[in-house]
Structures are given as C-alpha cells and as structure tokens.
Design a protein that fits this description.
The protein is of the alpha+beta class. It has a single domain, classed as CBS-domain. It is built from 5 helices and 6 strands, in the order αβαββαβαββα. The longest helix is centred in the C-terminal third of the chain and has 14 residues, at 157-170. The two termini are 33 Å apart. The relative contact order is 0.16.
C-alpha cells in the first residue's frame, strides 16, 4: 500500500506508514462503486421496513405454527417466551428437515422441539450488508430484528432482493 504522504510502499493492510507513521486506515476501507453498493454499505435494516413479527409461544404445537404460517403466508414464525424474548425461529426448512422425517404424527408436538434455537439476528441499525452477510454465511432466508432481545420485525432475503431491484430500476 503506497503512503499518500511520503510515497513509501508499505505492506498491504498496514495501518500506518512504516516510514512517516501516517495513518492509513482510511485507505483500507471499501468504497461503493455504484448505487447498490452504497445502499448496502450505508442503509440500515430499518430502511427495508421490516414486517411485524408473527410469533408463537414455545408451547405451541407444530400444527398450530403451520396454520399460523399458512394463514399469514410466511416461511417462518418467531418463537417468543412469556417474557417477550426471542427463543427461536420455526421455518419451512425446520419442517422439512426436522419434522417431516417423523411421518404424520407431528401436529401435536411442541414447536420448541423443532425450532432453530438462538437464531442469528440483526438490529434496525445494522447495515444491509451486515444482514446480507449473515444470511449468506448461515444460509438463512429470514432474520429476526431485535431490540433489547425482543423481536420488532423480520427481514427476509426477498426483502433485500426487492430493495436491490428497486435501486437497479431507478438507475
């Protein structure tokens, strides 16, 4: 990395120039090349308008959780304890990978047994890039949005795709 102050060729990723000790941390930050990158780096999860979370208690049955998901046309419901804190998320993937192998005798079993406990979450102030990264690394399609441990919303990969598509159309 070339120091803009003295021109010295430093090792890549150096935080300061080894010759003049000029701070070079700003040079290592990525810069947005277009409107989509700028939005991902600067806009917050709140800009997506997270949907109001649809919740069930941990004692709810799988059958009830499925009815709630079908009625609301959702791919996931949040599992919230009596204290209002997020305990887990129950998704279509949980249904297919954890419940379906049991056969047909699952409707009366508690959703707590099959939910994904301690799911990855975001806050309304996190950047879109941070949320997208969590989704990508974990293979998640839904992320609960929390404030003080309580769900305030849900964002999905579909929400992010719609946002990016809108930005592309506006160019």
């Amino acid at each position: 990395m070339i120091c803009p102050n003295c021109g010295h060729d430093n090792l890549p990723g150096a935080e300061e120039c080894s010759r003049c000790q000029q701070d070079m941390t700003q040079l290592d930050r990525p810069t947005a090349q277009d409107r989509v990158e700028r939005s991902l780096m600067e806009d917050h999860v709140s800009s997506l308008g997270p949907r109001v979370p649809v919740t069930v208690p941990p004692t709810a049955t799988v059958g009830h959780a499925l009815q709630v998901m079908l009625h609301a046309d959702l791919g996931a419901v949040l599992v919230v304890g009596p204290d209002g804190l997020l305990r887990g998320v129950f998704t279509e993937r949980d249904l297919l990978t954890k419940v379906a192998p049991l056969g047909t005798a699952f409707a009366d079993l508690p959703v707590e047994r099959f939910m994904t406990a301690n799911p990855e979450t975001v806050t309304a102030g996190d950047t879109l890039a941070f949320a997208l990264h969590k989704m990508d690394i974990g293979g998640y399609r839904h992320l609960p949005v929390l404030k003080d441990g309580q769900p305030t919303g849900v964002v999905s990969v579909r929400d992010l795709l719609r946002h990016i598509t809108r930005l592309c159309k506006d160019n």
